[in-house]
Specification:
Helix content is 70%, strand content 0%. By secondary structure, it is mainly alpha-helical.
């Protein structure tokens, strides 16, 4: 049903460059940016969650708010690099249920990241645990994308 869209997107100059360029500025650099963005985004949030769970008790929880711009910058890097990776392999991602699981887990983790800033005392630890689980599952799902696809491109037959 979406094959015409996938074919069109895969034929764009950017998509071809992403897949076929031997340049380190193509797929490798964009994938590296995606990883760095993830480190900033999830790393800051995981550190905040661990503090909520009692790690480093002498560090005030409010101090983590200073790192929110770094976390949101990581999100911007991840969105931009993720869109670029998606354009490179649209069929591979958009026909894979694991891709949608990854996006859902990230969305839940981001909602929790906002909610945990003003939690009720009885929910802070539960939110922190749920956030850690969401990040771990999202990262795992992201890694599994390389192995769980059924179609690499619009012209390929499902395996």
């Amino acid at each position: 049903m979406f094959d015409p869209f996938f074919l069109w997107l895969e034929a764009t100059t950017f998509s071809i460059w992403m897949r076929e360029s031997p340049s380190l500025f193509a797929f490798p650099l964009i994938l590296a940016a995606h990883t760095i963005g993830l480190g900033l985004l999830a790393g800051v949030d995981v550190a905040h969650d661990l503090r909520r769970l009692g790690l480093a008790p002498r560090v005030p929880v409010a101090e983590f708010d200073r790192f929110l711009p770094v976390m949101w910058f990581g999100l911007v890097v991840n969105v931009l690099s993720g869109v670029a990776l998606l354009i490179g392999y649209p069929t591979k991602a958009l026909t894979n249920p694991v891709f949608y699981l990854k996006l859902t887990l990230i969305a839940v983790a981001l909602v929790i990241a906002r909610a945990i800033r003003r939690p009720r005392p009885d929910t802070a630890k539960a939110l922190a645990i749920l956030s850690l689980l969401c990040w771990a599952a999202a990262i795992t799902a992201g890694r599994l994308l390389a192995y769980t696809y059924t179609r690499l491109d619009a012209l390929s037959v499902p395996r």
